[in-house]
Amino acid sequence: MAPAMTNAHTLIADPQDASTGERPFWLTKTLDAMTSEEWESLCDGCGRCCLVKLEDEDTGEVAYTDVGCTLLDGQTCRCRDYPDRQSKVPDCVRLTPEAVRTLSWLPQTCAYRLLAEGRDLYWWHPLVSGDPDSVHAAGVSVRDRVAGPEEDFTVRELLNRLVDWPTEEPA
């Protein structure tokens, strides 16, 4: 049975799929071979990639802040204007299979990164759990952790908002 669509960005695995013995698409297809719908469903909705990141000009090291992109909804952990995000936020990175393989700042928990590295999805990923809120219940998302949108902070203030938790994997 095919996954059921719950919103524009998240497919939820139908629990009956397990009884068919069929392996889920993310284990049988490469990132390049996925349909647009499958690709979008890989986003678990954690919002970590939408946090403002600062890059050290000398070392190239990237550090996360607890400040969200201007379009990040801190409660839903989704983009407020996903279809037009790149026109409204010029430095918004469009994830592609090629980009995923080269972006070192993607969170360790990111499904795109996990699959590109040959790893499986975590139990709390909505495609695995069947629950779009499991990413929040597991404490993986940015829900209730975003200090505010980037326009509310100066660059100097951003330097005081550095956090490690977006780079950590859950226990």
Automatic annotation (TrEMBL):
Belongs to the UPF0260 family. This is UPF0260 protein DES45_105208. It holds the Pfam family CxxCxxCC. InterPro entries: Puta_zinc/iron-chelating_dom (IPR005358), UCP006173 (IPR008228). It comes from Microvirga subterranea. It comes from the Bacteria.
